[in-house]
Every structure is written in C-alpha cells, then in structure tokens.
C-alpha cells in the first residue's frame, strides 16, 4: 500500500504505464498467509518490484512502449519473472521505456516522456527510464530493465541509483522482447549493492528456454558477502578519461576516486586502449542489423496493431501496418539494419563490425589476464534537458561510448551513484569485471560504495 500511494502521488513522472493495484495487494496478503501457515518464506518475500515494458508477465499487457503492440498480452512469464514470483516478490506494475528499448533519453516512448524525479526538466536516461525513476522516486524497491548498450546503467547514472548489467548469458532472455539478441541482458536497478545481489541470485541461472544462457552454477548471496577486505588490481583507460566528449567534473571526480582507491590499498593503473573510437559504430551496425531481423515478426498479422485500411495486397498490408505501428527511431534503426545487411554492403559493414567485435573481445581478455576490474565513466555528461539531443541522433548515439563496450564483449558492468555535479544532478562510476565474474563485480562495488 505504501508503494501504491507513492505511485499515486507521482503520476506526473509517467514512470508506470500500468499499476497492478488490486493484484499487488491481494498477492501481499496471500504471501503473508502462506508464510503464516507454512513458516517458510521466499528469498524475496514481499519485495516490491517493477518490470520494464519489454519483460513478459503472463496475462498482462506488454507493448515495448510501442503502438504496434497495443492490446497485446503476454501468454507466458519471462523466466526471470517466474523466478521472482517463486521467491515471493510482488510485481507492482509495468514501466515506461524507449520504444523497443531504443534510445538514451526515454523520449522515444509512444506513451510519453518519463521525467527525472530530481529535475523534471531533465531526461531520466534510457531506454529503461521508467524503471530507473521508479526506484529513484521510491515507487518500488527494485526494478528489472534491459541493457543492450547501457539502458540500465545510463538511466541509473542519470537518476542517482545503482544499475547493474549481468554478464551475457547470466540471466535467461526468455520472455524479454528482443532488440539485439547477442547484446541484450535483463538488468537490475536498486538502492544498494546488496539488494541487487539478492535479486541476481534469484533471477540468474540455467534455462531450457534460452540456449545462450550459461549453465555455470549461480553463486549464492552468501558468497557475495564474503571477501570484504580483498584488495583489487584495477585498470582504467587513459583514452576514456582524456576523451574530449567527457565532462570535466566527471573526469575530476573519477580521478579522485582512483586516488582514494589507491590509498585504501588497491592497485589502480592507467592502460592504453586505442579502440574506444570504434565501439559506437560497431555497436550501431550490429545492433541495428539484429533489430531489423528481430522486429520483422511485427507484421500486423501475428501481434498487435494491424492497419484498418481494407482490401490491401499482402505486401502493402505489411508496409501499412508497420508504418502506422512503429515510431520514428525504430524505423530509422530497421532501415539502417536492413542496409548494413543488404548484399551490396554486408561485407563492408556487418562483417567488418563482427571482426571489430572479435578484436575488442580479445583485447579485453588480455586486459583481464592482468587486472580484476576496469573502471570507466558511465556517461559523458549528466542528465540533459528534454529536446537537447533529440534532433541530433548521432550526438545521442555517441553519448553511449562508455556503456556499449560491456555489451559488445559480454562482460558484467555496474553504475554506482557516487557523485553530484555542480548542476545538482547525480552521476556515477562504471565498474566492469571479466565475463561470469558477476559476484566479484558486486563485491568490489560494495567496497567502493
Ligand atoms: N542507448 C542505446 C541504444 O539506443 C542503448 C539501448 C539499450 O541498452 N537498450 O541503443
């Protein structure tokens, strides 16, 4: 009831597209009854969680914040959601986001902007903006979002909370609407590292419904709490902190953190990484290619919106339904993806980008032979004002420079809310560890926080 009241008081933020009022209260009651009877409670008993509108929850609407899925209801639970429910969580509602998780500001939702609770004239970040603001404003305890190139870490940074993207394959993608399947991961927003670790323990692990999920055992929450006094070997990219796009205050604050990490006994070293200029182009070639293929299923026949114009031939019917249903940014990306996959340009763009991705992975592996972790900024600058970048998509894409790296190479990454800018907005520090070293990442994060 407390969270429902908070949601009701904050509808102007537009964080939730739907609130499961009666259902959440009923579930809270029945969870307590079950516990009274059996004496047993789940690991997330009574934890109030919101879901980004790209994660399936059976018999509930699911639209990816797109008109094309208006009226569609999930016919099954995402594996992550099934795990949450098994452990006693209460799902409180469906959260606004950029259409099909494409964007960095939540200005691409078909259902309106989400406002940053700290300053309503500024964006909350994207694409999981509603999920970030819901935790920022205390409308739920934890949210699940999705992170293909930063969509959990960047809005967490803009909102002053923790945003965690697990390793690729740590959490099943079954029931997550696909944007770019080889990049997508379900991620977690929370207020403490410990909350995030608890939720990860529940949602991670093997799944017969996702062939890309790892069958490596999931470390327990207890193991996260071990190792408190460990000293780490940490690298940072000189080029990342020297980049001209980086806000000066962000740079200074991170350099101070580096000093204090050294004072606490960690080894922190600057290393050369010449590949940062390639990450954004590589990311946008590969993700748009995958998106153009993934989104071909929305054809007006199988799901959601279909054109009302009668007597069309099949091709025109597809074109009309898709043109009416998809928003501008999604159309841009489908066209870009179709272009880089087209026979004349496949080798020049798609194959080339795959090769760059491979090189990035190899370089990253080599770094982790010497270091436990990498630190980076999460963003180039704190939350910007609405409209500031929406007319310049390239500038918007380039601001993803620090987050897309983790998805390109499949490693876990987290944004920790450590700083406040002189303009009053929060921002964070990004920490990354080797693939499947999610527990190590959370332990290190806990010692930094
Ligand atoms: N901002 C990035 C994009 O627009 C990241 C999106 C995401 O992680 N879903 O593609």
Task: Kindly describe this structure.
The protein has helices at residues 2-9, 21-38, 79-86, 129-136, 153-159, 193-203, 221-225, 238-242, 248-263, 276-294, 314-325, 328-341, 346-370, 393-398, 404-409, 438-448, and strands at 16-19, 48-52, 90-95, 142-147, 162-165, 185-190, 233-237, 267-271, 373-377, 413-420, 426-432. With 449 residues, it is α/β, with parallel strands linked by helices. The chain has a domain at 2-225: Amidase signature (AS) domain (Amidase signature (AS) enzymes). It has an eleven-stranded mixed sheet, sandwiched between helices. The longest helix has 25 residues, at 346-370. The structure holds glutamine (GLN). Residues 101-104, 127, 146-151, 179, 287, 400 line the site of glutamine (GLN).
């Amino acid at each position: 009831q407390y969270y429902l009241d908070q949601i009701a008081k904050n509808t102007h933020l537009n964080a939730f597209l739907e609130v499961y009022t009666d259902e959440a209260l009923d579930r809270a009651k029945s969870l307590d009854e079950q516990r009274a009877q059996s004496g047993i409670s789940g690991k997330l008993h009574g934890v109030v969680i919101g879901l980004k509108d790209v994660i399936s929850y059976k018999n509930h609407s699911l639209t990816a914040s797109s008109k094309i899925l208006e009226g569609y209801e999930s016919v099954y639970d995402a594996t992550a959601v099934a795990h949450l429910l098994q452990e006693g969580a209460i799902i409180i509602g469906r959260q606004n986001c950029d259409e099909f998780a494409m964007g960095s500001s939540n200005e691409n939702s078909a259902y309106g902007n989400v406002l940053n609770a700290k300053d309503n004239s500024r964006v909350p970040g994207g694409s999981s903006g509603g999920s970030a603001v819901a935790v920022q404003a205390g409308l739920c305890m934890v949210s699940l979002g999705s992170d293909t190139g930063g969509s959990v870490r960047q809005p967490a940074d803009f909102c002053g909370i923790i945003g965690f993207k697990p390793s690729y394959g740590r959490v099943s993608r079954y029931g997550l609407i696909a944007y770019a399947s080889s990049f997508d991961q379900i991620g977690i927003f929370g207020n403490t590292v410990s909350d995030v670790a608890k939720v990860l323990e529940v949602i991670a692990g093997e799944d017969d419904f996702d062939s890309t999920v790892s069958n490596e055992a999931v470390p327990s929450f207890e193991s996260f709490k071990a190792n408190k006094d460990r000293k780490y070997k940490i690298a940072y990219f000189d080029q990342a902190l020297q980049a001209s796009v980086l806000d000066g205050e962000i740079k200074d604050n991170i350099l101070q953190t580096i000093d204090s990490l050294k004072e606490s006994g960690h080894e922190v070293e600057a290393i050369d990484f010449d590949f940062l200029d390639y990450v954004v182009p590589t990311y946008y070639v590969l993700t748009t290619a995958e998106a153009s293929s993934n989104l071909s299923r929305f054809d007006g026949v199988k799901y959601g919106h279909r054109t009302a114009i009668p007597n069309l031939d099949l091709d025109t019917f597809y074109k009309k339904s898709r043109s009416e249903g998809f928003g501008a940014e999604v159309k841009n990306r489908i066209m870009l993806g179709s272009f880089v996959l087209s026979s004349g340009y496949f080798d020049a763009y798609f194959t080339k980008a795959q090769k760059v991705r491979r090189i990035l992975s190899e370089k990253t592996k080599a770094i982790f032979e010497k270091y436990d972790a990498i630190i980076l900024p999460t963003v180039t600058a704190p939350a910007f004002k609405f409209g500031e970048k929406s007319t310049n998509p390239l500038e918007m894409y380039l601001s993803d420079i620090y987050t897309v790296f983790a998805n390109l190479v499949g490693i876990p990454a987290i944004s920790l809310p450590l700083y406040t800018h002189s303009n009053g907005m929060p921002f964070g520090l990004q920490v990354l560890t080797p693939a499947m070293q999610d527990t190590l990442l959370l332990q290190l994060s806990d010692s930094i926080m």
